[in-house]
Design goal:
about 230 residues; Ribonuclease iii, N-terminal Endonuclease Domain, Chain A; 2 domains; three-stranded antiparallel sheet; 11 helices
Length: about 230
């Protein structure tokens, strides 16, 4: 008969070269308290997985939103790695049903508790990273990140205008917006730039600012207003 861990691997497609890592990831400390012979619980893997998820989510966001500021990237990463989100990822995998829990934790509804599920998902990520490395772990988590962002209302996406316009252009027109500086005025210490943005050959907006980036942001915002997206 297949073990609980084998069934989990079969269901998710996450096959471990070192199955004991998966077993540890699915072992809550409450189970070890009642069964000392079970070995190590998942708390160290949870610590590792937390760090891996911070890195992978940051790397994914950096590549996906090339114009977002540090503050915007930080806020977006928070959306991906907060307890509620990671708990939802665990629920999608039905992770709670495969956990080894102590009797008290089981009876108090631990299998559905967001904090426990979040920790289990982090531990699973840490175990996968140790077993198969960064790229395999990236292939596992990035589709979850993508699905999470696809489900967010646009008002919850704190992206700058250039990033929002690029996302729209690549999705709808399969091209990247092009920005061109068409005018510079004022003395050297106080320049003002005018920038236009084109999607394909279509001029969608223009803007002015004290830097080329500020002017480009204004141009992108004008384009979004023109498209009815802002």
């Amino acid at each position: 008969m297949a073990s609980t861990f084998d069934l989990f691997a079969q269901r998710t497609g996450l096959h471990f070269d070192e199955p004991t890592l998966l077993q540890r990831a699915l072992t809550h400390h409450s189970y070890v308290n009642e069964h000392p012979e079970a070995g190590e619980d998942n708390e160290r893997l949870e610590f590792l997985g937390d760090a891996v998820l911070d890195f992978l989510s940051g790397s994914w966001l950096y590549a996906r939103y090339p114009h977002a500021t540090e503050g915007e990237l930080t806020r977006l990463r928070t959306v991906l790695v907060r307890t509620e989100t990671l708990g939802e990822f665990a629920k999608e995998l039905e992770l709670g049903g495969y956990m080894r829990l102590g009797r008290g934790e089981e009876e108090s509804g631990g299998r559905q508790r967001p904090l426990l599920l979040c920790g289990a998902f982090e531990a699973l990520t840490g175990a996968l990273y140790l077993d198969q490395g960064e790229e395999a772990t990236r292939r596992f988590v990035e589709p979850l990140f993508e699905a999470q962002f696809a489900s967010l209302p646009s008002d919850d996406m704190p992206l700058d205008a250039k990033s929002r316009l690029q996302e729209w252009a690549q999705s709808e027109r399969m091209v990247t917006p092009h920005y061109r500086t068409v005018n510079e005025t004022g003395p050297q210490h106080s320049r003002e730039f005018t920038v236009e943005v084109l999607v394909g050959n279509e001029l969608l907006g223009s803007g002015s600012g004290r830097s080329k980036n500020a002017a480009a942001q204004e141009a992108a915002a004008a384009a979004l207003r023109h498209l009815g997206l802002l």
